[in-house]
Amino acid sequence: MLCVISASSENSGIMKAIELTERLLSEGCNPSSFSVLSRAHDAYCLDRRNNEWVIFYSERGIDSPPIFHTANESEACDYFYSLILKQEHWHIVGFFNIENDAIELEKKLISFGITPVRNDIPAYKAENDPRYRVFVIGKDIFKVKEKFKNFTVNYA
Predict the structure, then answer these.
(1) What is the CA radius of gyration of the chain?
(2) pTM of the entire structure?
(3) To bridge 74 with a disulfide, which of 4, 16, 44, 105 should be the other Cys (CB 3.0-4.6 Å)?
């Protein structure tokens, strides 16, 4: 079972489907947005069903009809790899109940050359209970982990 990654991609070559997850993670893809050789919730999935490789989206435990299917593993892996890389991969790096904390994190990120993205929740558990979220996109998650040793997100 081999998966051919297109020659135009970095470090191109032949890899097994089970190595595809690591390849996608190394590209800054968010692991919650995809699943290889299994099924996940709210994610694109590449799985083997009977004698066929299928790519589908699973949302809230319900699988959509396959968006791609083939008997050829290489074709399936190449399609899946391209599909996942086309997405914008957001990684949460801050979740606060005080807006100033989010602003301070944004300033730190900018000082390190990392572009933050804000996406706040106006009513988290109740009306007038906002949460302030800070994200980074793609490979910027590696910069965050480098600059902030022992990086974790605490959910306020």
Answers:
(1) 18
(2) 0.82
(3) 4
Digit-coded pLDDT (tens) for 88-122: 999 999 999 999 999 999 999 999 999 999 999 99
Token output for 71: 């008997």
Q: Which residues contact 144 (CB under 8 A, 6 or more apart)?
A: 91, 93, 109, 114, 136, 151
Q: Name the one residue in this structure whose structure tokens are 């991969």.
A: 89
Place of tokens 């807006």: 99
Q: Would you give the end-to-end CA distance of the chain in angstroms?
A: 45
Q: Judging by DSSP bridges, how do beta strands 3-5 and 90-96 pair with one another?
A: unpaired
User: How far apart (Å, rounded) are the C-alpha atoms in residues 151 and 47?
Assistant: 32
Q: Are strands 52-59 and 68-70 parallel, antiparallel or unpaired?
A: antiparallel
- Alpha-helical regions (H) of 18-153: 20-26, 73-86, 99-111, 140-147
* H/E stretch holding 132: strand 132-137
